[in-house]
Design brief:
alpha+beta, two-stranded antiparallel ribbon
Length: 148
């Protein structure tokens, strides 16, 4: 946190003006964006599943091949300052979405709590929810009743 009562960067810096380090630090490590989603072709409605991408380390909620994820998983969407506001499937708790909408980060966000495990301790990550893509079977069998 900033000294002398200054506001933290995420409250003062627009997403488009953040440095790469600031941008990356906004990720709370929940890995909800790494869950497969299904879209109804007729209505456009998005359905979340509990199935993690094949590159997701579910226990750590991290991508095992982060730097090459888009090459290895061509439909992996890489979040950036240009597309984050357009991605309607971003979880409501996502810091990128919250900051973009001018909202505060939750208490469990590591930038607020100072603890990278707070997102897991708060039960907000997919750590105890997700199943691996390799063992899941049809995605239709894994649709969640609500956003994780």
């Amino acid at each position: 946190m900033p000294a002398d009562g200054d506001k933290p960067f995420w409250e003062t810096t627009p997403l488009a003006e953040m440095t790469k380090a600031e941008w990356e630090s906004l990720c709370d490590g929940c890995a909800k964006c790494c869950l497969h989603k299904l879209e109804d072709a007729d209505t456009g409605e998005i359905f979340f599943t509990d199935v993690g991408c094949r590159l997701l380390d579910i226990g750590n909620c991290t991508c095992t091949r982060y730097e090459e994820r888009n090459r290895l998983v061509p439909d992996c969407v890489i979040l950036d300052q240009d597309n984050v506001r357009e991605l309607k499937w971003m979880p409501a708790t996502c810091a990128y979405r919250l900051v973009g909408e001018g909202k505060a980060l939750y208490w469990w966000h590591p930038l607020v709590s100072g603890d990278p495990d707070s997102v897991h301790q708060a039960g907000v990550s997919v750590r105890n929810l997700a199943v691996t893509e390799r063992l899941a079977g049809p995605l239709e069998h894994h649709i969640l009743a609500e956003e994780p």
